[in-house]
Amino acid sequence: xxxxxxxxxxxxxxxxxxxxxxxxxxxxxxxxxxxxxxxxxxxxxxxxxxxxxxxxxxxxxxxxxxxxxxxxxxxxxxxxxxxxxxxxxxxxxxxxxxxxxxxxxxxxxxxxxxxxxxxxxxxxxxxxxxxxxxxxxxxxxxxxxxxxxxxxxxx
Length: 155
Fold this sequence. Notes:
By secondary structure, the protein is α+β, with helices and mostly antiparallel strands. The chain has helices at residues 12-15, 35-47, 76-90, 97-100, 102-117; strands at residues 2-11, 71-73, 122-127, 132-141.
C-alpha cells in the first residue's frame, strides 16, 4: 500500500457545488425524464471525473486526473509529514484562530499519521480568509480500504 496527497484551495461557493463533488448515479435518468434532468446528469457524468473539486467521499480522489496528485509516499509517516507541511504553509491564512495553534496542528498531524498507518484515508478542510477554503486529503492506494475497486491513478 502507498498514499497519495491531494490539495485544493478555492472559493467556498465553488466547493459547495456538491453535485460536482459526488460520482454520478450508476443509472441515468429514465427515458422521458425532463430535459434539464438529463442534461444535468450528462454534465455531472462528464465533470466529476475531471473536476479538481474534492470529492465528498475521500477515496474518489483516486479517479481524478493524475495531475492532481501532489505527492506519493510508501510510508504513512512521510505522507503525514507532507500533510503537516501543507498545514504549516497555510496556517497563517486559517480563518479560525484555533486552527492556527501550533500545538493543535502538531496533534492533528500525529492523528493523521496514526490513521494512515491503519490504512484509512484522511481528509480535512479549513476556512481561509473568506470566502476561500482549503481541502487536504491523503488517500491510501492499492488497495483503498473504503473502495478497493478503485484503480491507482499513477499505475
